[in-house]
């Protein structure tokens, strides 16, 4: 069989991503409060939420402990060891988030020890030749901020921009890429409309307030960063799904355009402020009457369809914004690691086709470096997204075979197909 080598652009950034609450452990924020109050309910509801095969394969979902982040991966204390592993896997970039509740545990009072901690984290990445992508808000909020109404509070933008100003001022020598917020559309829908994740607010009024306040917080944060460092790169990590309508030939385009109009609302408003686009791609959303027939049936442990073709469509749809794109997340819940290698290669192959067709993609950060506390709607520990497996009892790390395959691509900046 003939093989071919796909070469990626010179200087391409390769790595993985994490978020503070999902890996660090020892948190005290709005999520930890929610977890305490809701773990039992979530364990009970697992029976109705997940399919039989998932319930059989992951009995942990019936244990309330699954829904309490607790020590998580203890990454707070083990970041050096984890970055050593990432470096050994050929990563030259890494995305992580700074936990607002650690840095500003009381309103207006910054904890200098935590600021020093994140300085060490950044320095550890720099020492290993890994470019940091720093997320400033990955869904968790300090308790005081939440008590004041979270993003529904008119002053939320003031609070957030004060935190961002402090952080950008502290680390301007170490950070070039700032991911100001992560997946605003997902977090505001789940946390402020459906109430299915912290802070558990519901209804359209909370949604609208949350959405627009978060947007002005984003705008103010960007202003603050650019004032401190005019050369900084700023962006948002957007969850971008490939909407694929198969309803009626003449209508499909219209349907997807309407859905995209709403789902990319934040992104479109954010574009004029950004110097790059962060793209989180996981799956396609099939809109059809005969879902079962069309669906490929190829699913990850969470039941999401695996659809590498979607990344190609998504990347081409971003071309019109004329900004560099970084894949800030793309990954698979795959506990036995039987599909991750293929998942990565297929997505990279389609990303490569998009690049050939003019998409300006400059980096790929796989979700995730480690198994972690899975976020949306508080799914907890059972879904396994890591290139590196974590034994939550012993905290032992084990590199998965797929991570070694991905390492070959990162190290060579090319992929054999
Ligand atoms: C989030 C991550 C999450 C991942 C997988 C994204 O929605 O940014 O925090 O773990 O998807 O569900």
Topology:
Blueprint: E1 5-7, E2 13-17, H1 20-23, H2 30-49, H3 52-57, H4 75-88, E3 93-97, H5 100-103, H6 112-127, E4 131-135, H7 143-147, H8 156-171, E5 177-182, H9 184-193, H10 204-228, E6 233-239, E7 242-246, H11 249-263, H12 265-270, E8 277-280, E9 284-288, H13 291-294, H14 309-318, E10 325-329, H15 340-356, E11 361-367, E12 388-390, E13 397-399, H16 401-412, E14 414-416
Parallel strand pairs: 2-3, 2-11, 3-4, 4-5, 5-6, 6-8, 7-9, 8-10, 10-11
Antiparallel strand pairs: 1-14, 12-13
Helix pairs in contact: 8-10, 9-10, 14-15, 15-16
This protein binds beta-D-glucopyranose.
Residues 19, 182-183, 186, 239, 280, 329, 367, 374-376 line the site of beta-D-glucopyranose.
Can you give a write-up of this model?
There is one protein chain. With 417 residues, this protein is of the alpha/beta class. It has one domain (5-416): Glycosidases (TIM Barrel, Alpha-Beta Barrel). It has 16 helices and 14 strands. The strands form four sheets. It has an eight-stranded parallel barrel with strand order 2-3-4-5-6-8-10-11, surrounded by four helices. Strands 1-14 form a two-stranded antiparallel ribbon. The radius of gyration is 20 Å and the shape is globular. The termini are close together. It binds beta-D-glucopyranose (BGC). Beta-D-glucopyranose (BGC) binds next to loops.
